Amino acid sequence: MDGMVVSTWFCRVDCVTTASASLEAHRDSVRAIAHNFGVSDREISLAPRQGQVNLTVFLGNDLVLRLPRKQRFEDRLSKEAELIPFVLDRGIPTARLVSFDPGHTVADITYIVLERLHGQMINDIPSPADGGSRLYGSLFEILSSLHSIRRDSEPQIRSVETAEFAYEVLDELTSSGEIGGSQAAWLRRWFDHLESQGARDSEPVLLHGDVMPSNLIMNESGDVTAIIDWGSACWGEAARDLASFRTSTLPVVVDTYRAATASHQAAAGGVGALEASVLWYQLIFALLKLLGRQSTSETRNWSAPREARLIEIVRFLTTNVPDRWKSLLPED
């Protein structure tokens, strides 16, 4: 590889990720994989958006290479390799699987190569009032089809696990000093109240698991044309895929999703139950964030700051929201 190209490429890497040392270590692997697909060194470029799990590299205009940042993330690539052909067969638009090499036949690392999809990308999902109506409608058509795939009818998907959320998070928060015992008891009563309203009571369906702006491909009209990155896919309640939306948009999100899933309402949950389920997940995700590290990323989304989700929930439930949402508050 030309020295100037190497320098420029890895300089760009340093600018967008803190994993420059590991990227430098994989330089030869990236080159070997690229050459295996007939891609020259000069056609290698780092994707402008990088996640915490995988390093993403463009191989020319047609291919995307993804390498796990840590060995324990290889299982996610295995999941994607199994799941992508499955969802494509069922009409879910996503990037086509080109190659998966867990045996290190080309390079000394497990990797996956996908079709490179071209389209618009966004930093945040706008509200319908800000022009997001087409986005919501098209995205929920995709999720509606995805959520119609039920666990009890698809036992052959071996790599997709069932998402489990236990109340041990309250014990962890208490022992770490993030909350007190009385606060944990009140939160438990809130979870119990949400479950009495129908949360956590719907049949497990196939979830994408990470419905974020960075995983959506859009056309110029604002329609979502594909959803990518299936490493977090799991079986669970459909409401979990809605919990990544900004809390203030939940009434519109739930109403639009409910309309999109009207033909198979059982997957989404009935009126009231879906609201309770979405809020249940928003609350558990907010509490889990308190156990994580503070985010310092320049490109972080609305929920990246550790306390952001809790504050958004408080703000949402203390403003002019529909009564069916305020009824989800605990009585004491």
TrEMBL record:
Lineage of producing organism: Bacteria, Bacillati, Actinomycetota, Actinomycetes, Propionibacteriales
Pfam families to which the protein is assigned, alphabetical: APH (PF01636)
InterPro entries documented for this protein: AGP_Transferase, Aminoglycoside_PTrfase, Kinase-like_dom_sf
Top-level division of the source organism's lineage: Bacteria
Entries under Gene3D superfamilies matching the protein: 3.90.1200.10, Phosphorylase Kinase, domain 1
Name listed for the protein in its UniProt record: Aminoglycoside phosphotransferase domain-containing protein
Chain ranges of the Aminoglycoside phosphotransferase domain: 49-248
